[in-house]
Amino acid sequence: MKKYSIQEIMETLPVKDVAVIAGRKVRTKVLYIAGLAATMSPDGQIIEQSTKKEVGVTNFDAGNKLNAGRDLLVLGVRILFDTTAAVTVKTASWKSEAPANFKNGQLVINQQGSGDLFNNPIGPFAQYNAAIAVEDQFRAVSPFWIRQLSEFSIQFLLAGAGAADQAFRVELDCLEITDASVS
Q: In the Cβ-directed half-sphere of 39, how many Cα atoms lie within 13 Å?
C-alpha cells in the first residue's frame, strides 16, 4: 500500500485548492529566497527584517517574521545554484550542482523561542544534476513549524568564502496555514 504525504492528501480534497479545517485555511505553498554568495551578510543570514517581497528574489512578504494569522509547516527543502560568470539572481538558470563551499557547509533555520528548527549539511539538499521525478525534487525533512509574529532566520554556514559568481536559491515546500478570515 502506498504511503501518502500530507501534501498528497491535501491535494485530493474537493475544495478549490483550499481546505478549511477548524477555522484555518490550509494550502500548499513553496516559499523561496535567492541571493548572491558574495553579498551575503558576514554571519550568513539570508533573510532579514528588511527583506521585501520581489519577484525572482523572494516571496517572503514580511521580512523575517510571518504576518499575524499565518503559520508554515515546512515539509521539504531544496537548494539550487548557478555559478555562471556574471550571474544575477533574476537571470539565474537554477541547477542543483552545489559549489564546494556550499556543498560542505550547513543550512540553519531557527526561530526566536524555539532554537534550531533545521540544521543540516547543504550537500544532501542539492541534487547534483540527477534526473529525478518532479515530485521527488524536494528533499523531505522532519516537519517543522515557522510561527507567526516571531522572528526566524535562514542562515548559510559556508565552508569557505562566497565567490562573486555564486547565486543560490533556498526553497521551502510548505503547508501554509492561515486564519479563514484572511484572504
A: 10
The angle at the Cα of 22, spanning 64 to 112, to the nearest 5 degrees, equals: 25
| Alpha carbon of residue 61 to chain centroid | 13
Q: How far apart are CA 176 and CA 159, in angstroms?
A: 32
Which amino acid, residue 159? A
H-type alpha helices, the chain:
6-11, 100-103
Chain centroid, CA 145 distance in Å: 12
Please give the full DSSP string across 14-34, using - where no structure is assigned. SSTT-EEETTEEEEEEEEEEE
Residue type, 132: I
List pLDDT tens digits, range 39-86: 999 999 999 999 999 999 999 988 899 999 999 999 999 999 999 999
Do 162 and 37 contact (CB within 8 A), yes or no?
yes
Residue 134 has pLDDT above 80, yes or no: no
pTM: predicted TM-score of the whole model, two decimal places:
0.85
Asked if 41 and 162 count as a contact pair (C-beta separation under 8 A), the reply is no
